[in-house]
Amino acid sequence: MFDIGFWELLFVALIGLLVLGPERLPVALRGLQRGIQKMKSFGTSVQAELNHELRIKELHDHLKKAEQMDVEKLSPELQRSMAELREAAAGVQRPYAKKPNAQDDESEPPATDESKPSS
């Protein structure tokens, strides 16, 4: 990665030993190792997020192409897939919108103000 040879690495270790001393050098190396691990994990998470966003963009582009083509000429499977994609996209755009459940409608009627005593 940095193209450091054995002698250069030995020289850096010797300077670190002289500057930090034998007591603090292992602690400094562990701290450096943790910092490098955190940077690698951050880079990996950024890369995964970018790949995810690029995939979403690609799906949106394909959906736009399919919508520009004659939708009626698509097979029934593709039409169902497009409908599912539209529903998923709408769910992502409004993640906190309350979805009506059929079970809620059947179980109990909505509460009204009739149960409160009038003053």
Automatic annotation (TrEMBL):
One of its GO terms (molecular function) is protein transmembrane transporter activity. The keyword Lyase does not apply. Keywords: Cell membrane, Membrane, Protein transport, Translocation, Transmembrane, Transmembrane helix, Transport. It comes from the Bacteria. The keyword Cell membrane applies. It holds the Pfam family TatA_B_E. Coiled coil: none annotated. Residues 84-119 are annotated as: Disordered. It is found in: Cell membrane; Membrane. It is a single-pass membrane protein. GO terms for cellular component: TAT protein transport complex. GO terms for biological process: protein transport by the Tat complex. The Tat system comprises two distinct complexes: a TatABC complex, containing multiple copies of TatA, TatB and TatC subunits, and a separate TatA complex, containing only TatA subunits. Substrates initially bind to the TatABC complex, which probably triggers association of the separate TatA complex to form the active translocon. Part of the twin-arginine translocation (Tat) system that transports large folded proteins containing a characteristic twin-arginine motif in their signal peptide across membranes. Together with TatC, TatB is part of a receptor directly interacting with Tat signal peptides. TatB may form an oligomeric binding site that transiently accommodates folded Tat precursor proteins before their translocation. NCBIfam families: tatB (TIGR01410). Belongs to the TatB family. This is Sec-independent protein translocase protein TatB. It comes from Pseudidiomarina halophila. The gene is tatB.
